[in-house]
Amino acid sequence: MKPFPTVRRPLARLAAGLIALATALAPALSPARDKDIPEAEGGIVGTGIAPAGIYGVITGLGSIHVNGQRVVYDPGLLVHSPLGSMTAEMLEPGDVVAVMADPEGDDWRARSIDRVFALIGPIESVARGSFTVMGSQVLADAGELEPGDWVAVSGLWQENALSASDIEPIPPQDHALVQGTWKRTPDGVTIGGARLEGISPTHAGPGEVLSAEGQPIPGGISAERLSFGIFPDSAGLVLAEGYLADARDGSGMYILLGSGLVAYTENPGMIDPEQRILSCGSPADGGTVPQELAARLGCTGIPMMDPATPR
């Protein structure tokens, strides 16, 4: 096989924040439950409150910057990755991460960092400005990559396509991977544009994030193992980056793709599935959100999405 080129393309910084979207959607949102935001006595550290979850694309180094938040980490902190563990110092702009963190001064200190890949597998076809991996269109130029080459792609799902933030050519692996929001279609279950065969997610709820590992097949993956969610533990509050799924299916539910966050609207026409946004998600246990934590993440005064739950 020809030598793999280096193809790393960090995405541009977030062009439009959540405030504009929240202003447009606020009258139409119907959160599943109201969130009380009490004052936190003595701050957050040491009170037993769950850490924040931060999911998005790294935009800067000197520590890491994700979704406008600066996250520091202990030297040598191991980052969990489907391609094998690495240290946090090896992360680069364009990598997508799921961080569990606690407030520290004006920043956050990472408890754990997971490097998130949406697709790991062989290229099926190449077109101008895009290529396809296991049935999912990747919105990026393939450069010198060719069908049959294996890649690990980071990015944010935009309906059935992946807006790539980083493309890493890799040797062929024992297993392929697809991670994203699952949905059931007339033709079966899909994750992004990949058709899921093998194992069926019988108890998965609408909007949940599903990670499927298995063997690549034309147009999809034959799953040998399924797992759910993007964080290793429950988060007290989530700040996530992504694109909204089109909510015009009559249910009123819309999803921040790849994040596991859902909400409802009575005016689905106001949702723009082409706008990249930040959104906040409430605790999975239904608990209260400390005001300090919400304020630090920019989550006060805006409607909050809920975590998707199993059926």
Helix content: under 10%
Overall pLDDT, averaged? 80
Radius of gyration: 19 Å
> For the terminal residues, how far apart are their CA atoms?
45 Å
Give the number of helices.
2
Class from secondary-structure proportions: mainly beta
The description of the largest β-sheet is: 10 strands, mixed
How many beta-strand runs? 22
**Unreliable runs, pLDDT <50, ≥5 residues?**
1-47
Sequence of secondary-structure elements: HEEEEEEEEEEEEEEEEEEEEEHE
Indicate the overall shape: globular
Strand percentage lies at: 35-45%
Structure description:
The protein is mostly beta strands and 311 residues long. Helices cover 5% and strands 43% of the residues. It has two helices and 22 strands. The strands form three sheets. Strands 8, 9, 10, 11, 12, 13, 14, 15, 16 and 17 form a ten-stranded mixed beta sheet that branches. The longest helix is centred in the first third of the chain and has 8 residues, at 18-25. 45% of the residues are buried. InterPro entries: DUF5666. Residues 121-168 form the DUF5666 domain. This is DUF5666 domain-containing protein.
Features:
single chain, DUF5666 domain-containing protein, 311 residues, ten-stranded mixed sheet, 5% helix, five-stranded mixed β-barrel, 43% strand
List the helices and strands and how they pair.
Layout: H1 18-25, E1 52-60, E2 64-66, E3 69-72, E4 78-80, E5 86-87, E6 96-104, E7 107-116, E8 119-127, E9 130-133, E10 136-139, E11 150-158, E12 161-170, E13 176-185, E14 188-191, E15 194-197, E16 209-217, E17 220-228, E18 237-243, E19 253-256, E20 261-264, E21 276-281, H2 291-296, E22 306-307
Parallel strand pairs: 1-18, 3-7, 4-7, 10-12, 15-17
Antiparallel strand pairs: 1-2, 1-6, 2-3, 4-5, 6-7, 8-9, 8-11, 8-13, 9-10, 11-12, 13-14, 13-16, 14-15, 16-17, 18-21, 19-20, 20-22
InterPro entries: DUF5666 (IPR043724)
Domain DUF5666: 121-168
Protein name: DUF5666 domain-containing protein
